[in-house]
## 1
Amino acid sequence: MLHPDSVPPLAAEDHVCADCVMDFGRTTVGDVREIVAAVPGRARDLTEAHDDEAWRAPGPDGAWSAAEYLCHVRDVYAVFTIRLHRARTEDDPALEPMLNDLRARRFDYAHAALGPAIDQLGAHVVGFLAELDRVPEDAWARPVHRYPEEGRTVLWLARQAAHEGRHHLRDIAAALGA
C-alpha cells in the first residue's frame, strides 16, 4: 500500500525536533521512561492552572484545542502500548495509523471531560511503561512498519512515544497561553 496523503509521514529514526528540542539519536530508553512518566503530572498541573473555557478554545489556524491535544496524548499511550507489545511478540508487524483527526472528530475530543481524560492518560502511561519494561535488551532493533516505506525499530517506537508526550504538552501549554 502506498502512503496516503491524509496520513502524515513518520518521523525518521534520527529525528531532531526543533520545537520541543528532542533528539531521537541521543534519547535513551531511560530518558524515554523519565519523559513519559512525567506527562500525566504535567497535564494535571496544566488542568488545575486553567479554566475549562481555556481548554476548549480552538487553536490558531484550525489547530486543536488543548482538550483535543490532551485526548490525543492519552490515545498515543494506549496505541503505543499495543504497538510495543506487537513489536515484541510479532515479526515486523504492520502498525495501523492512528488517524488522529478522525479520532478527534468521531470521539468529540473538544468536549471530553478533562478529569477522566487525565486519569485515563495516567493509566495509559502506566501500561506503556510496563510494556516498555518487557522489551528485552536485544529487541530494540526489531523492525516494525506502518507502510512499506516506513520501516522503523522498537527503539524508534519508544522514542516517538516520548516525543509525542513532550511535544504535545508544549502544544497544550501554548494553546492555554501558559
Note: Residues 84 and 131 are 7 Å apart (CA to CA).
## 2
Amino acid sequence: MQKYIDVTGLIQDGMWNYEPPFPSISIKPLPPVPWVEQPVYCEIFEGMHSQTGTYLETPAHFYGMDSEESYLLADVELERIMDVPCVVLNLGLLEKSPDGSRHGITVNELESCLNAKDICEGDAILVGTGWGRYWMDPDYLNTSPYFTKAAMDWLISKKPSILGSDLGRWENLDKPEGFFPDFYAADILMVGPLVNLEKVTSHRCRLTALPLNIARTSCAPARVVIIQE
C-alpha cells in the first residue's frame, strides 16, 4: 500500500523569509469587482517571489538567466521531476542551539544513516533534520544547521539528480564553506526547504516536485510529495 507524504511548506503570512531585498508574502482578498454582479472571491499574493516557501531551482540561479551553461525552470523535463527514485537521510530532530550558533552537518552524520548505502546514481537525495517544525519561527534561517563542505562534497559525489533538505540556508554566511560552485557545476536540481521529512520511514521512496510553470525564472514555488510503500 502506498503512503503519500506532503513535504511542502505552507505559504502563509508570517512564515520564514529571506532577508531584504526579498519581499515578504502577504495574502490579501481581492477588492470588489465592479464589472461582475455577484461577489467574487480571489486572493492577491503580495510579496511573492521565486524563492517563496518550498521551491525547485535550476543552476540558472547561479549562472544567470541567459547563460549557455544552464537552463531555465520551464525547460526542465517532467521526467526529471516526477516519480524520481529517492533516498531520505534523516539525521534526527536537531534542536536550536541555546547560544544561537549553527550546527555544521558532517559526512559522518550522513554516512551514519542506515539507508546511506542505498543511494544510487541519479536518485533524489533529501536530508532531514526536523527543521520544518520551525517554519514559522523568526530564527528559522539564522539558527538552522548548514552543510560543511565535506558533507556537500559527499552528497555531490553520489551524483544525485535532485538534492534537497528541510533547511532554508545551506551555507554558513559567517564563515562560508564555499561549496556552491561545485554544486551548480554538477547540474543538480535543488528542492526545498521541505517539511515532514521525519515522517518518511522507508529506506527508499519516490519524489515528485512540480513547480509553477513560469517563464524566465531559475526557480519557483513547488508542490513536493513523497510516495513510499
Note: The mean pLDDT is 97.
## 3
Amino acid sequence: MIPRDILKKIRQIEIRTNRLVSETLAGQYHSVFKGQGMNFDEVREYQPGDDVRSIDWNVTARMNHPFIKKFVEERELTVMLVVDLSGSGLFGSVAQSKRELAAEIASVLAFSAIRNNDKVGLILFSEGVEKFIPPRKGRKHVLRVIREILFYEPKKRGTDLNSALELMLRVLPHRSIVVILSDFLGQTAPTRPESDAHLRRKAVLSETLRQASFTVLRQANRRHDVVAVHITDRYELELPALGRLVLKDAETGEVVEVNTGDERKRAAFAQRQARAQAELLKLFRGARIDSIQLRTDQPYAGALGRFFETREKRRRHG
C-alpha cells in the first residue's frame, strides 16, 4: 500500500505536467523523434517518378501492370529514462531539489511518450545501477516510474554514469530515445590545495566523465538517440554572500568551511564553474549529443519547447 503523502506528491506532478503535455509538448514530441524504421502499409499503382525498387513484383505479375509497396514510418518508440540518484541530487536552494525537478521532467517526457503509444523504461543509478524497470506502456506504469525517481532510496551516494550506460546498451536491442537526467557532478581535487576548499563539494565534469564517459556516451549515441538533461542549481554556479559557512559534501560526507564573504573567492568560483559548464557542453557536442540546460530556480517549459523546436527545424532541413 502506497502512503497517502507519496500518492499526493505523484498526483501533484501529474497535474502540473499534464497541461504542458496536452497543450504543447505531445505534438512536438511526435514530430521530432523518429520511429525505428518503416512499416508496410499497402500497395498502390505505380506512378511516374516512383522508386522502381519499391515495385511489388508479385502483385504486378497478378495484375499485369506495376504496383509499388507503400510504407509508413514506424511510430512506436522506446524511451529509456536514465536518472542520477547520487547524493548531490537532493540539493536545492529553492522550493524544488534537483531530484524533484528530474522527476518532473521525466514525467513530461513519459506522458508525452505514452500519448504517442510509446514505451517508457527507467534506469536509476548512483555509483552503480540501483534499479532497472523494463519499458512498458500505460499511465499506471508511468506513475510507477515517477514514484521510483522521487522516493527510491539509493544504496550509494556517489556517481558512475558509465555503469548505467553500459546496462542500457545491453538491455535495449533496438534504437531508442535515451534521456539522461543528471547534474553531471563529480569529485575532483581543488587546483590550489591551500585555498578554494569549497570546490571539493562538487565540480562539474569530473575526471571520470572527461575521460571514460566520452567514449561510452559516443558509443551510446551511435546506437540510440541520446539526450542529456543537465540539471543545476543557482548556488552550484555562484556562491551566495553569507559569510562563513560549514558545508558537507552530499556524496563523500566531507565537511569544509567556506568564507563566502570574500568577493574574490566568489568570483573565482563562478569563473571556474562557468568553464566547467562550457567543458561539459563541449563533451556533449563531441559525442554529438543534444542537451538541455535546466535550473531549479527557473521555469523549464520554455527550455523544453526550444529544444523540441530546434530538433524539429533540424529534422526538416536535414
Note: The mean pLDDT is 83.
